[in-house]
Amino acid sequence: MVTKKEITVEEKLRALYDLQLIDSRIDEIRNMRGELPLEVRDLEDEVEGMIARLAKLNNDLELLETQISEKKNSIEESKNLIKKYTAQQDTVRNNREFNSLSKEIEYQELEIQLAEKHIREFKAQIEHKKQVIEETEARKNERAEHLIHKKGELDAILQETEKEELALMEESKKLEATIEPRLVKAYKKIRNSVKNGLAVVPIERGAAAGSYFTIPPQVQMEIAGRKKIITDEHSGRILVDINLANEEREKMETLFAKLK
């Protein structure tokens, strides 16, 4: 029966630092994109919103034109009624009928005045909406052009980095599978709790990389011995010695070059 070889602490440290280097490279690639994906989405939403607004404004224009047409028809009907009532006045038999027809004529004249007033109001609204449409159309075209530019920027970055990012993510998963789950969990917890995503860092000039707190010489010796996993008491980061870090960086740089 073949016994499974036990992984040494040094091998665990190397694997964790390799994982850190790969994940940091993925972070770099994503930082290159920066706010561009969000910017593109915001621009897309803005352009879609203006397209929807233009559609509503144009529908409003059609409705106003319809209302003007209806009012013009109403005016023609009132004019025809006035002609009819005026003609009837010539054949009435008494003043009561004449006065009744006069009231009808007066009413239709008021109807014409009211319809003409509405037409003027509708035309004013049309002019205002046309101005808003013109301004919105210009703004939409400007934002759409900006969107094309930003999409071009994003597509160029994606084209340049997407293949590498996917390959690195695959390498990250493979590497995680070789590390015991509790260490992966601890690594991710630390990584998520720090701004720069560095969960595993080397000792540089007597302190953890990126830290101003000096690590006691005895602890530095233990870290260099690679016999146990040691964390920085200030940041909680896992610490490795600079020689191990340099060796793994060199190895990972070769991998990164192949994946580009």
User: DSSP helix count?
Assistant: 6
Total number of domains? 2
In terms of DSSP E residues, the strand content is under 5%
> Ranges with pLDDT <50 over ≥5 residues?
none
Mean pLDDT: 93
Counting helices, strands and paired strands, the structural category is: mainly alpha
* CATH architecture name of the largest domain: Orthogonal Bundle
Count of distinct strands: 4
**What is the helix/strand order?**
HHHHEEHEEH
Largest sheet: 4 strands, mixed
Helix content: over 70%
Q: What is the strand arrangement across the widest sheet?
A: 2-1-4-3
Name the shape in a single word: rod-shaped
| C-alpha-based Rg, rounded | 40 Å
Classify the fold: give the CATH topology of the largest domain.
Helix Hairpins
Q: What is the name of the CATH class of the largest domain? A: Mainly Alpha
Report how far apart the termini are.
42 Å
Short précis:
With 260 residues, the protein is mainly alpha-helical. Helices cover 78% and strands 5% of the residues.
Walk me through what this model shows.
The protein has about 260 residues and is mostly helical. It starts with 8 loop residues before the first helix and ends with a helix. The longest helix has about 80 residues. The mean pLDDT is about 95. The protein is about 80% helix and about 5% strand. It contains 6 helices and 4 strands; from the N terminus they run H-H-H-H-E-E-H-E-E-H.
